[in-house]
Amino acid sequence: MQSSNSQSISQRLKAMADSDRHSRNAATKEDTVAKAPLSVDYQQLSQQLSGLINGEKDRVANLANCSALLWQELGNINWVGFYLLKRNKLVLGPFQGKPACSRIELGAGVCGTAAQMLKTIIVADVHQFPGHIACDLASKSEIVLPIINEGKLVGLLDIDSPETDRFDHHDQQGLELIIQTLLPHI
Ligand code: SME
Fold it and tell me: In terms of pTM, does the model score above 0.70?
């Protein structure tokens, strides 16, 4: 029997699935680039995320739903997901997009650099970033945001785009809000 919480989440998921936006963005194997509009209301996205993860304590479930929501709602991206810090390495977590490298050393690539610096990195052209790790050859720009709890690195949110210079400070601020919404639930 489903709990009232899981019922309400199913209802919310169904409402989202029924929406026009979802139908437009439904990803298939042939459609690996999310097609939502570029200008996104991150406040609204944060509220949608709260609706999906409030009441659920499982970290993987909440990271998985967050990556699926971002994949559905952000335009012109080809990969979105999480790396989690485990035994001083970044280990692949829930994501949407093509298969990616399972482990990244601290200091390696954009992810390892953001992890080491504890800072968000926006890369306008990944080919100009020394040591960039190419998981999907279609990726041209990238944003990586550290997830920090009480001063300690928990993991990273990584998003790739097939378009050069896709991410700006509006995305950075909005995605930092998404991370703050997610943090108590992972
Ligand atoms: N490009 C990243 C590797 C992860 S994939 O993009 C999913 C990097 O340079 O660290």
Answer: yes
CA of 150 to the centre of ligand 1 (A): 25
Domain ranges of the chain: 4-185
Which CATH number applies to 4-185: 3.30.450.40, 2.60.120.200, 2.170.150.40, 3.10.50.40? 3.30.450.40
Q: What's the confidence (pLDDT) of residue 102?
A: 97
Residue 47 neighbours by CB under 8 Å, 6+ apart: none
18-49 tens-digit pLDDT: 444 444 444 444 455 655 556 789 999 999 99
Q: Which residue has the higher pLDDT, 48 or 15?
A: 48
Mutate to test the pocket of ligand 1, among 133, 140, 161, 166 (most ligand atoms within 8 A of CB): 133
142 in ligand 1 pocket by Cβ < 6 Å? yes
Q: CA-based angle 166:183:82, to the nearest 5?
A: 45
CA triple 53-48-51, angle to 5 deg: 40
